[in-house]
């Protein structure tokens, strides 16, 4: 069966793979969360260009200079801080780049309509496009205009894709204490209650499987979407939200508006595993947080405890993960607990269960009561990240039906 090393590789794979999905840009990205965005950008820019037509050119150049330095990420708008010397005063920009105050004005107007939703990078891209369109009646021939616009779009896409690369050093200069802050908050939480490491690892898994590792699982329902927290696999089950909130507050106190919740969740999951004696890995960073979430996707994409092997394989394949990755990732069930309701039918009705194990679990999981009674996923060491989960499967002591499916005369037995 799978080794700890395989579990480790699969865990890092999980976050890389499912993050890429999230990295896709779309012209309707804010359709639900900020429907008036394009109108706001357009009208604020129109005023600025009416006052001074050159402004369209200045903003177009601002966009170009932004994109050429590590992607179209609005880094050109950042003032110097104690931790970094920014791009504003670099030779090509100093006493030359302009239009910052127009972008500021657009940002304020956008914030008034859709608070904390739209990135400055997207505002700059829209403003650059609108500026070109507003000079419609200038001497530029329409063919050239179209080419410029197409090329601008291509540049924005290519450069943003380059930017979508994750890196363990992503916050090295902007939040140098990040890893220490996450780790120390996790140490306190795990010391108080070791199971929290398991709950946060599962939170990360459930986040990643629903449209990428984008912290969408942390979002409460709003008027425009019904989120993932109350989806079947999460309701009365997923936990650890308050620890992520605490970490986020501590990180904000040190580096305001810098680190995504998605990255915090990825780091916390990794720290939790390490604190319970499991493997360590360098967490790739630079994820973007979602502004929306989907309950129906959470219901359809997450595996349930009564899943068959074929079912499990197909849900993991849909995420770009192989059957072998799945078996290795399931090694996470070496820690944590499950509720009686999730394993009752396995210990009462399945044939592939060791009888003494079934009898033991039935003591605290009656056939018609005690839905929320807990049992350890790993019989021997639920607070240690080790290999016993797989040994239990070989002994027919897997707690969930879905666990035992990984060793039940099927394709996964040999891993
Ligand atoms: C293979 C398909 C999987 C299924 C069907 C499954 C299902 C479950 C279920 C039903 C529970 C108990 C929930 C409850 O009682 O409320 C659970 C717990 C848990 N799962 Fe999974 N899981 C799967 C894969 C994974 C993966 C890939 C990870 C992480 C990489 C993971 C991590 C955990 C952890 C750590 C717990 C314990 C949580 C706690 O104690 O709070 N699971 N899982």
Automatic annotation (TrEMBL):
Gene3D superfamilies in alphabetical order: 1.10.520.10, Peroxidase, domain 2
Binding residue positions for heme b: 333
Catalytic activity: 2 a phenolic donor + H2O2 = 2 a phenolic radical donor + 2 H2O
Protein name: Peroxidase
Functional note: Removal of H(2)O(2), oxidation of toxic reductants, biosynthesis and degradation of lignin, suberization, auxin catabolism, response to environmental stresses such as wounding, pathogen attack and oxidative stress.
Positions of Ca(2+) 2 binding: 334, 378, 381, 386
UniProt site positions, description: Transition state stabilizer: 202
MF terms in GO: heme binding; lactoperoxidase activity; metal ion binding
Bound cofactor: record note: Binds 2 calcium ions per subunit. Binds 1 heme b (iron(II)-protoporphyrin IX) group per subunit.
SUPFAM superfamilies registered for this protein in UniProt: Heme-dependent peroxidases (SSF48113)
GO CC entries: extracellular region
Species: Musa troglodytarum (fe'i banana)
Residue span(s) of domain Plant heme peroxidase family profile: 24-147, 165-415
GO biological process: hydrogen peroxide catabolic process; response to oxidative stress
Keywords tagged on the record: Calcium, Disulfide bond, Glycoprotein, Heme, Hydrogen peroxide, Iron, Metal-binding, Oxidoreductase, Peroxidase, Pyrrolidone carboxylic acid, Secreted, Signal
Database matches in InterPro entries: Haem_peroxidase, Haem_peroxidase_sf, Peroxidase_pln, Peroxidases_AS, Peroxidases_heam-ligand_BS, Secretory_peroxidase
Superkingdom of this protein's organism: Eukaryota
Cofactors (names): Ca(2+); heme b
Entry EC number(s): 1.11.1.7
Bridged cysteine pairs (disulfide): 175-255, 208-213, 340-365
Family: Belongs to the peroxidase family. Classical plant (class III) peroxidase subfamily. Belongs to the peroxidase family. Ascorbate peroxidase subfamily.
Chain positions recorded as Ca(2+) 1 binding sites: 207, 210, 212, 214, 216, 228
Subcellular location: Secreted
Catalytic residues of the enzyme: 206 (proton acceptor)
